[in-house]
Amino acid sequence: MHLPKTPSLRLDNKRALVTGASSGIGLGCAVALAEAGAHVVCAARRADVLNASVDAMRAQGWSAEAMTLDQSDISAVEAAFAEPYDIVLNSAGLARHSAAVDTSSADYDAVMDLNVKGAYFLSSFAAKAMLAAGKPGSIIHISSQMGHVGGPERAVYCASKHAVEGMVKSMAIEWGKQGIRINTICPTFIRTPLTAPTFDDPERLAWVMSKIKLPRVGEVSDIMGAALFLASDASAMVTGTSMLIDGGWTAD
Q1: Looking at 85, 108, 120, 157, which residue is catalytic?
Q2: CATH number of 15-247
């Protein structure tokens, strides 16, 4: 009897680029890919924090290097793809929350420039390099549950993440025949230094817990498995979609 074979989650001999990799979700994803055998180029703006993170990864015996990169600098992003990657994971993002009537033009532009324009051209340059090399690949964006719902004081952020979700669907249609997959991971509120103000505010924490159906908030480790899945052959038939890791937030 012939039994089916489970696809491998290993990433040996794969090159991965992870943006926003100095801390939080980005660092967690970089660790997940490196632990599975990939050589991971960790990119972020803060060179000191980035280098410390890469040093810690190397101390574990994993293959990693640092790349200082401002993802809102489109020319710099293009230059990062002189050679193709097998996996590109974008965790760079920005949130500036305010009531919609109080949103400034500067805040709107900052969020859209990074969350949408930066993500768009990162995807475009990544795919262009893969296509030129005749290689398949996986492009992954850390989006948000707010790409599927709305939230108070989050109109600009929600707009940016809804845009990413639509962008990914269109790119998946364009690149699928060449074996290039593109997907999003959509977390709920994840405990990181950046989300500490939310979790430290009793009223905001109560709102978050009223929406999450499971009895806790998210941790970085909750995202790492999804990143590994989408980067690996285990997700070979997955493209143009989102993985909601939201504790049931969007279930109702």
Answers
A1: 157
A2: 3.40.50.720
